[in-house]
Write a sequence for this structure.
């Protein structure tokens, strides 16, 4: 029996070709799908990383401002222990004269400090005197024994508490301090700090910010509907404690609709918040008592990743089509080699069809890329216009212009735009590093510190104010290697305070100049800061380093900057003084111990 080859059967050959084409089509589909999936994943991860870096800067900015505002009033209650009238009132609470004297004293201090309320409680928790003594809903006479800050102050000396005021119905942060005399606790001084201004400032930043207390309840938020709501149901013990201490007033503690989807990294997760996918980033503040959370919408990131995936899929399709064209051309060349004259006409026809198909494919490719580019630009413009703040507007304009220049093949001009964008990013990074350096905690140990470097760091933090006010700064350090024994962060704080006061002093002066001289004298370092302002008022000069003595408007300053600076300098064996020199203006002198003899520093 004669065997017949399968390839000689026309139907079998067609079936084999169909199977081969199906396999190639499936492989092409897999490659296009894989390229789209990979592009989507890489684009989403890159967008998340960029967002996380921006959120980290935002968290640092918010946390620094919040901790700074709380620390500003941390000392205020303890100062009342140095006021004899307050202690006399605690010993004789029924004296109308003492009560009136303390009421007026508290009102004056509170007006200068800018706190929301300042009051004094006896040991049982009854308010004896307050800054709002003359108002209808005064704190005086109310019983605050149920508040945790009273018990904490009586037991530990200090107390802290955030809650809604009993008389004012306004939330605030309470700082308490036990007042003692003759080693016996007589009462408690309490200051209430409003965080409304800090919360209002958060609204100018991208995303949604909220602050959680130790129970996980939202106490501050740029989204008003979440205030005094927990992120998770509270335990029975927590609810009982809330009912006893009443921190949230009459708020209904309904949890926020929050479902965690994925833990992206430490202190970062993706969650559904009231049906919207959000990236939640957090960090602790207020000495780990609270948690600051920033929410950013994931929809723009996923939309951008989808657009990139579509572009990758289209690019894969174009690549497959180009491979098909190349394959067809190869077959044409093989056909040309198999015949000569007889196949010449077929060769010409095939070349013509290949050229036409290539032109059509390229035209379709250009149209698809252009349409997708315009759609992506529209979505990105809408997202960026909603998310970016003013400092990044210049970067957006330069980036858009660079795209136009690249399309026009003006590569040198496009490179110039990209370099300008890099300089803007460096500028923002420099500002962030300066804020981190400014917020670092001092070590308190005295080490050799270069005077020129500390002065330069202080001036750099005031650079924008100096430029805006048109103040000329002259710095002279002789020798340039002059070093003193101090803590660098604390000494920098002293010069920041003195420089800020000098800027305020010369803001309205006809000649605006600040001169800083540092020299060695009799084995000590003397730094003089001389401004061209109107000088120190005669009534303030004898009391320059007393608490709450200031020439600034109420709320503009506490009158404690010079007191704190003098205390820092004194801790390192130095002295801070101020005077009105004969030439006009004011001059503050900082005297510190040298780290080493000057001749050694010169030959070092």
């Amino acid at each position: 029996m004669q065997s017949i080859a399968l390839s000689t059967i026309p139907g079998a050959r067609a079936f084999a070709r169909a199977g081969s084409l199906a396999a190639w089509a499936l492989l092409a589909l897999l490659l296009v799908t894989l390229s789209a999936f990979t592009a989507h994943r890489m684009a989403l991860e890159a967008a998340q990383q960029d967002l996380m870096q921006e959120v980290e800067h935002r968290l640092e900015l918010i946390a620094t401002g919040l901790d700074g505002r709380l620390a500003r009033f941390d000392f205020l209650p303890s100062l009342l222990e140095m006021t004899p009238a307050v202690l006399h009132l605690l010993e004789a609470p029924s004296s109308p004269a003492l009560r009136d004297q303390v009421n007026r004293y508290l009102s004056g201090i509170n007006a200068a400090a800018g706190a929301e309320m300042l009051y004094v409680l006896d040991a049982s928790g009854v308010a004896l005197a307050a800054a709002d003594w003359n108002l209808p809903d005064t704190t005086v006479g109310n019983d605050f024994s149920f508040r945790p800050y009273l018990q904490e102050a009586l037991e530990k000396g200090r107390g802290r508490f955030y809650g809604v005021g009993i008389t004012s119905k306004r939330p605030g942060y309470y700082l308490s301090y036990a007042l003692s005399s003759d080693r016996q606790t007589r009462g408690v001084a309490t200051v209430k700090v409003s965080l409304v201004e800090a919360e209002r400032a958060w609204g100018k930043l991208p995303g949604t910010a909220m602050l959680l207390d130790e129970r996980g309840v939202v106490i501050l938020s740029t989204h008003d509907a979440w205030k005094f709501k927990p992120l998770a149901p509270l335990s029975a013990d927590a609810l009982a404690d809330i009912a006893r201490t009443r921190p949230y007033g009459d708020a209904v503690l309904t949890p926020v609709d929050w479902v965690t989807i994925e833990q992206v990294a430490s202190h970062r997760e993706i969650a559904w918040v009231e049906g919207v996918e959000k990236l939640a980033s957090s960090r602790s503040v207020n000495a780990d008592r609270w948690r600051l959370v920033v929410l950013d919408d994931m929809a723009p990131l996923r939309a951008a990743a989808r657009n990139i995936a579509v572009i990758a899929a289209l690019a894969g399709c174009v690549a497959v089509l180009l491979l098909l064209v190349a394959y067809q051309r190869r077959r044409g060349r093989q056909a040309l080699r198999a015949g000569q004259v007889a196949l010449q006409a077929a060769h010409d026809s095939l070349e013509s069809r290949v050229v036409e198909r290539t032109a059509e494919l390229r035209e379709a490719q250009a149209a698809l890329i252009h349409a997708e580019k315009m759609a992506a630009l529209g979505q990105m413009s809408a997202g960026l216009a909603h998310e970016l703040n003013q400092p990044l507007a210049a970067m957006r304009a330069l980036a858009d212009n660079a795209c136009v220049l690249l399309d026009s093949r003006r590569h040198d001009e496009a490179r110039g735009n990209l370099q300008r964008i890099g300089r803007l990013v460096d500028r923002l990074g420099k500002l962030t590093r300066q804020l981190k350096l400014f917020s670092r905690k001092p070590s308190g140990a005295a080490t050799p510190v270069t005077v020129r470097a500390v002065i330069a760091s202080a001036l750099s933090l005031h650079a924008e104010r100096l430029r805006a006010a048109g103040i000329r700064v002259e710095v002279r350090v002789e020798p340039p290697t002059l070093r003193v024994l101090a803590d660098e962060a604390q000494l920098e704080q002293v010069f920041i305070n003195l420089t800020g006061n000098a800027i305020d002093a010369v803001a309205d002066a006809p000649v605006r100049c600040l001169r800083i001289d540092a020299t060695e004298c009799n084995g000590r370092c003397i730094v003089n800061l001389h401004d061209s302002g109107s000088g120190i008022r005669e009534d303030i000069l004898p009391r320059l380093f007393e608490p709450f003595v200031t020439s600034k408007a109420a709320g503009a300053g506490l009158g404690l900057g010079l007191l704190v600076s003098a205390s820092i300098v004194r801790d390192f064996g130095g002295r801070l003084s101020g005077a009105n020199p004969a030439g006009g203006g004011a001059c503050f002198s900082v005297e510190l111990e040298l780290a080493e003899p000057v001749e050694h520093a010169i030959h070092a």
Notes: The radius of gyration is 36 Å.
